[in-house]
Specification:
2 copies of one chain form a homodimer. Chain A has helices at 14-28, 42-50, 53-59, 81-101, 121-134, 161-170, 188-214, 233-243, 264-274, 303-308, 314-328, 330-338; strands spanning 3-9, 64-69, 106-111, 138-141, 174-176, 220-222, 255-258, 279-280. Chain A is an alpha/beta fold and 341 residues long. Chain A has an 8-stranded parallel β-sheet. The radius of gyration of chain A is 19 Å and the shape is globular.
Chain lengths: 341, 341
């Protein structure tokens, strides 16, 4: 089967954004009542995905997508913890409902209620609620809640450890994924996302030996094909030599990359350099890009087309499309097995 | 001939750092006298490069290197303008002396005296001094003088325009190059440099149509193989479609990439995706990495080996090794012609 590990609910019905707007309005005017998520019907949820993610997933031959709230909408830069908790909960509950409506096609991944400087206790609580209560199989972890001001400590800092303990206890991985950039130098989709991927990997290269000795089961998924990392794999190897660090390949038991790279040469490089045991199929659909390459007629984010054309053997394709995802997301594997898949 | 457009004076004699240390000591204790650059003999300069950049350039078959002050040492995050002016001047003068000692092997590129929030007047003045007074052929422009806090406006902001007017008037390009990161989330060589390359390109994609209409002759060199950009070229094309922007290829008359990518698959992708008319040979030597890939015996930063093995035709190699550099750096071309080359 073909598992897309990186899909976002970018098409949630408008009342969900209405709730968010009411939250922000209350932060501007605290005399307003605390808003509650608006009611959204199952039909509205169905309509929001059947012509979008679900339709495209089917058209392109995918079987199941890991589905998480819209990344740019997480907006962890809003500093009020209660607002962050309510927003994460509402966003995750909506994602959960979609996955319950289409259990054959979606499995849920949660957003965490992070804030700049806010600690990880709320994130740990929401992670537990989602995973143990609602069958979520992973989470998105924002290494920069400030949204482009980069005020949080590196991912190897001990302040993250309570969250890592929860991830290991629950046996779920974290995708390292920032949200909207609030700094005008960074375009969210064209710079901030890729920079965060690159930054996180380098933090893990610097401090991974200690971190993964402490948390051997901790697993990070670096999205967007690992940012700049596979393209600069020789740079990382040479840096590791210079800095007396283990070779970056030693991280790949704990750090994997997805295939959200939107042209054939990029996918060729990714699969050739990183190897097919540590790359997980993904499209980020409906995500960063729209449209079709005029010279090929292939949609930019139809990453399956590129993976299929990368000259890989059947067992290598099986790793990228299915086996690696089942290994990195054991709760997804259990969910699939409970469905007889 | 083979021109390496990206080399840094990372091996300057110790008294140069002594001057810097004295500058910083005076900032900590303003009762100290304003330090002056220490005297450094020609022999010390010769010794500093003959066993390093010059030796390796010759060993690898290079003919000439564009030589600029150590990038991580620019330290634009130090906010005192007079300190920045004196440091840039001393660093540039030292580079100039090396290029005068070895005019066949080095041509000078200058550091600019930037500071966080400090405007560009001092940078314009130093650029004029170096180019018209000392034959410099280009400069390094830091898009983030803060060193990883990213407090400057995007490169498309009008506050940069006086510098762009000077670049166009003098007909020299700017390499977009940050300095040391002061933010612990960013490793200077493994994250900050690559992020800055990616960030700058996306800024130019967003605002380049207007910027280059205003400054048709403005040219930027994005180092380190363009950061994440060529690997994600399909993402940029798809983003451009989504945002109603011109295709990123339309920027390549004003934006070029260097070959500081330290493995064969990266160079293969770069030359295949970007094309050989917009890629300039470079090694960043002695720069980010040290050592040799054990499986090939090739030094990580021996980029000529990768370019030679990329399957390019002789005229394509000529573009990468020489013709593009002469086009982008016309003052280098004039210098070479005056030498009968």
């Amino acid at each position: 089967m073909i598992i897309d590990i990186h899909g976002h609910y970018t098409t949630a019905p408008a009342p969900h954004q209405g709730f968010r707007d009411a939250q922000l309005a209350r932060l501007a005017d605290p005399s307003r009542p605390v808003p509650r998520p608006e009611r959204i019907s199952d039909d509205a949820l169905r309509e929001s995905v059947e012509h979008n993610q679900l339709k495209i997933l089917r058209e392109r031959g995918g079987d199941l997508m890991l589905f998480s709230p819209k990344a740019s909408g997480m907006e962890h830069h809003i500093t009020d913890p209660a607002t962050a908790r309510d927003w994460a909960r509402a966003s995750n509950d909506l994602v959960h409902r979609v996955t319950e409506l289409y259990p054959q096609h979606f499995a849920p991944v949660c957003q965490l209620p992070q804030t700049p400087g806010g600690g990880v206790a709320d994130a740990v609580a929401e992670l537990h609620r989602c995973v143990t209560g609602s069958g979520f199989v992973g989470c998105n972890l924002n290494p920069d809640p400030s949204g482009g001001h980069w005020t949080a400590p590196p991912l190897t800092d001990t302040s993250w450890y309570p969250l890592y303990e929860a991830l290991c206890e629950l046996d779920v991985p974290a995708m390292v994924h920032v949200s909207s950039a609030c700094n005008p130098v960074f375009h969210t989709l064209g710079a901030h996302y890729l920079n965060a991927d690159t930054t996180a990997f380098m933090q893990l290269l610097q401090g991974g030996a200690e971190l993964f000795a402490r948390f051997p089961g901790l697993r990070f998924v670096i999205p967007h094909g690992g940012g700049a990392v596979p393209y600069h794999w020789g740079r990382y190897r040479g840096l590791a030599v210079r800095m007396g660090l283990p070779d970056p390949a030693s991280l790949l038991g704990n750090v994997v990359f997805d295939t959200c790279v939107y042209h054939q040469p990029g996918i060729d490089l990714l699969t050739r350099v990183i190897g097919t045991e540590h790359v997980l199929f993904a499209s980020e659909m409906l995500g960063a890009v729209r449209g079709v390459a005029p010279e090929t007629g292939i949609a930019w984010d139809d990453t399956k087309t590129y993976v299929d054309a990368a000259g890989l053997a059947p067992d290598q394709l099986h790793h990228i499309y299915e086996a690696n995802a089942r290994r990195v997301y054991p709760r997804l594997d259990a969910r699939l097995r409970s469905q007889g898949r």
